[in-house]
Amino acid sequence: MAKIIKVTGAEITIAHNEEYLKLSPSELNFVPQLGDEVEVHKVDGEIIVMKKDSEKDDKINISIVNENNAIQNQSQVVNTQQATYGMHYVNKWLYVLLAIFFGGFGAHHFYAGYNGKGIFHLILLITGISVFLGLFQGIIALFKTPDANGKIAV
Known about the structure:
The chain is of the alpha+beta class. It has two domains: 2-51, no CATH class; 89-153, no CATH class. The protein has five helices and seven strands; from the N terminus they run βββββαβααααβ. The strands form two sheets. The chain has a five-stranded antiparallel beta sheet with strand order 3-2-1-4-5, with no helix packed on it. It has a two-stranded antiparallel ribbon with strand order 6-7. A hairpin with a 2-residue loop joins strand 4 and strand 5. It is rod-shaped. Residues 78-82 have low confidence and may be disordered.
């Protein structure tokens, strides 16, 4: 592989196999540019220089858009949103810790935005039932799989 390393009005320098060839621009059948890759052939004492064709991308990229699939995918997203309607997303570990240690006070429900459930837990605190409910809900939340942001639906 040879490369044009110097171009002046009167002379072109080509680096080829650890030697430098100096040619006149009139000896070439193309307009030389600095950095062009060329093929050099020596035939019967004559030097023939041909510009190497830039490699073309023969790969064909086809992008097919099926509008029916796009509509189906949109409806699936809507169905997913409807399935989680009314659910609140909270940080898994904070919810678990609040449920286990402060579940009797309903802290995990207040954190999740369920104020009515939180007040109900406060009322049940008199009987001690809310302590066990909070512990149970914390253990259940512990086994839920979080999303990419570490949040779970409660």
